[in-house]
Design brief:
Length: 222
């Protein structure tokens, strides 16, 4: 398989700086816009586009384009989406919840971008932690723990912004336990995948995303 030609180092650095500026705009401006009630409705409409643009930016800096990577990406999408699908229609796995309209078009009552979100979160945390240890199980544990911590920060914001709603407005403990379990499985597949796992934009985007939801926890009426 032919390798994709890489731009010179200076060009790569310039592209990375531009990408980071775009990430700051995506999450910084987004956090401000969603915090202002008069503009919130307009920024909510952009939520699926924000996720898709984040995906495009990450893939633009991905270095492991071989046959194994799309297999992992597909598995991450469908395992995450499938878990949500079962959860929505049975009330098991994560708990009893339903999706709102903010996340865009749905397939079987689950927003399509949810699968994208699972891939992005695993890819981000997996790329950040992949050098921490050579032990795949420990690395999967760390990645899943990071995702669960982010979900804890994200949940109140998601409810406030019409991402999804919990029965009786109570987030059950099983949500975090099962989120961890599903994340662990996908992270383990990530570790076993035979593709390059470093991405120079991953850590920056993960921090931006974490700050985005942290700020909204304080600026929204939760």
């Amino acid at each position: 398989m032919h390798k994709i030609a890489q731009p010179p180092p200076k060009a790569q650095n310039k592209q990375l700086v531009i990408a980071k500026i775009v990430v700051v705009a995506l999450y910084g401006v987004g956090a401000v816009g969603l915090s202002i009630p008069e503009y919130r409705e307009y920024f909510l409409l952009l939520t699926p586009a924000q996720l898709l643009l984040s995906l495009a930016l990450l893939l633009g800096f991905h270095r492991g384009w071989n046959e194994a990577f799309p297999i992992f990406a597909t598995a991450a999408f469908w395992l995450g989406f499938g878990a949500e699908l079962i959860g929505i229609h049975t009330g098991y796995i994560f708990g009893d919840y339903v999706y709102g309209e903010t996340l865009g078009p749905k397939l079987w009552e689950v927003p399509i971008v949810i699968g994208v979100n699972w891939f992005i979160l695993v890819y981000l945390t997996g790329s950040v932690f992949y050098k921490v240890t050579d032990n795949d199980l420990y690395a999967a544990f760390l990645g899943a723990a990071a995702m669960t911590a982010l979900d804890y920060i994200m949940e109140p914001v998601a409810v406030a912004l019409d991402f999804w709603y919990w029965k009786f407005d109570i987030i059950p403990a099983e949500n975090y336990l099962t989120w961890f379990a599903v994340a662990f499985l996908i992270h383990y597949i990530f570790r076993k995948g035979n593709f390059e796992k470093s991405n120079p934009l991953a850590a920056f985007m993960l921090v931006a995303m974490t700050l985005f939801f942290t700020v909204l926890n304080f600026t929204l009426e939760l």
